[in-house]
Design brief:
This protein has about 375 residues and is an alpha/beta fold. The protein has two domains: about 240 residues, 3-Layer(aba) Sandwich (Aspartate Aminotransferase, domain 2), CATH 3.40.640; about 120 residues, Alpha-Beta Complex (Aspartate Aminotransferase, domain 1). The chain contains twelve helices and twelve strands. A hairpin with a 5-residue loop joins strand 6 and strand 7. Helix 2 runs antiparallel to helix 8. The mean pLDDT is about 95. Bound molecules: pyridoxal-5'-phosphate. The site of pyridoxal-5'-phosphate (PLP) has 15 residues, from helix 4 and helix 5.
Length: about 375
């Protein structure tokens, strides 16, 4: 059995090595390193895959979120509702632009923002909601979009972890995660489901105005060459990354199937252990398993993690501290106990190895060891 890794980017690369190497060599041969042809081809191909009108590539997922807020022309002091149980980038950009993040607790089963709690977070300064499709499945978009529409709010989807997931509306329509709100954002950080060989990100919109404005904002707010209508940023996906992502996009559905197969194996082999809760699937979304995250009693987590490590099985806590209790954000005035579900999850969650290259023997070994720990 090969060494078990949390993420196996090298193993994934080896299977598409020639394709990727050729793509890289072609970019080098043209030397069009910035705004080369592969960037626009990739944008078009990803837009087609997601069935969305506008796809704007940019430097990384954090920039995508920042540019989304800039695109909507939100103003300092405006309030943005979001989740405390996510990667910091979601909240960082709200803060950097002088807006105020307002945290709404998550659901204990799906880890995603709880629509039932939106009402009490609403104020006359609320302008937008930023749901995160955490670990690979969509937040409850029907409820979120309904609430946003009723209250005149924008919705920016943080889709860094669920690119390619399908959302089914109660009206029977199906849309890809990230294309439902006014704007969607994603990341091509190497370990994301569609990972580049460096940083990368993208924005999505079905709205013509938002799409055009975002495209201009990522390129210094330029409309016509050297004429600027908005203050923008320099955030571009470089051509090498676009060329690599074009190759990998063709394999994305297969990558999802590999992740789902590993998840199904875990589900099956761990479901008999009363001490752990395996991931709960929402009925309205497919799950592309960016992470496979267990819940277990807080008092046993460290010992369990330690045990796995001794057996050569890496695991990771995503995330150990909710964002409303982070030092950098303490001036927002939140206290322990304000968002009890997120706080509880931070002490209970543990993610197992999840990637496209997990072998049957590795999965078998991992589940044997997990079962072993809880038997003793
Ligand atoms: C990875 C991630 C981001 C940020 O993406 P970068 O490309 O690393 O800037 C934002 N939000 C979530 C939920 C993420 O997982």
């Amino acid at each position: 059995m090969n060494e078990i890794k949390m993420v196996d980017l090298y193993g994934q690369y080896l299977k598409i090595k020639d394709e990727v190497n050729n793509a890289i060599q072609q970019v080098i041969d043209t030397t069009a390193f910035i705004r080369g042809k592969d960037v626009s081809f990739f944008q078009d191909e990803l837009a087609a895959y997601l069935d969305v009108k506008h796809c704007i590539a940019c430097g990384n997922g954090t920039d995508a979120l920042q540019v989304a807020i800039m695109t909507l022309e939100l103003q300092p002091g405006d309030e943005v509702i979001t989740t405390p149980f996510t990667f910091i980038a979601t909240v960082e950009v709200i803060r950097l632009l002088g807006l105020k993040p307002v945290f709404v607790d998550v659901r204990p089963d799906t880890f995603n923002i709880d629509p039932e709690l939106l009402e009490q977070a609403l104020s006359d300064r609320t302008r937008a909601i930023v749901p995160v499709h955490l670990f690979g499945q969509c937040a409850d978009m029907d409820a979120l979009m309904g609430f946003a529409q009723k209250n005149g709010l924008y919705v920016i989807e943080d889709n860094a972890q669920a690119l390619g997931a399908d959302y089914s509306s109660s009206d029977g329509s199906r849309q890809k995660a990230g294309t439902i709100g006014h704007l969607g954002c994603t990341s091509f950080f190497p370990s994301k489901n569609l990972g580049a060989f460096g940083d990368g990100g993208a924005l999505f919109s079905n709205d013509e105005n938002f799409g055009l404005r975002a495209a201009s904002l990522v390129n210094h707010g330029m409309q016509k060459r050297y004429y600027y209508d908005h203050v923008g940023v320099n955030s571009r996906l470089d051509t090498l990354q676009a060329a690599i992502l074009r190759v990998k996009l063709k394999h994305l559905d297969a990558y999802h199937r590999a992740r789902q197969k590993a998840a199904a194996w875990y589900d099956e082999s761990l479901s008999g252990i009363p001490e752990i809760e395996t991931p709960v699937r929402s009925p309205f979304t497919s799950h592309v398993f960016h992470q496979y995250t267990l819940q277990l009693d807080a008092s046993r987590r460290e010992a369990f993690k330690q045990f796995l490590q001794e057996k050569g099985i890496p695991s990771q806590v995503y995330y150990p501290r909710p964002l409303h209790l982070q030092k950098a954000y303490s001036d927002l005035g939140y206290r322990e106990g304000d968002l009890p579900v997120a706080e509880g999850l931070c002490s209970r969650v543990l993610s197992l190895p999840m990637h496209t290259e997990l072998e049957h023997s590795q999965l078998e070994y991992i589940s044997d060891q997990v079962n072993q720990f809880f038997k003793s």
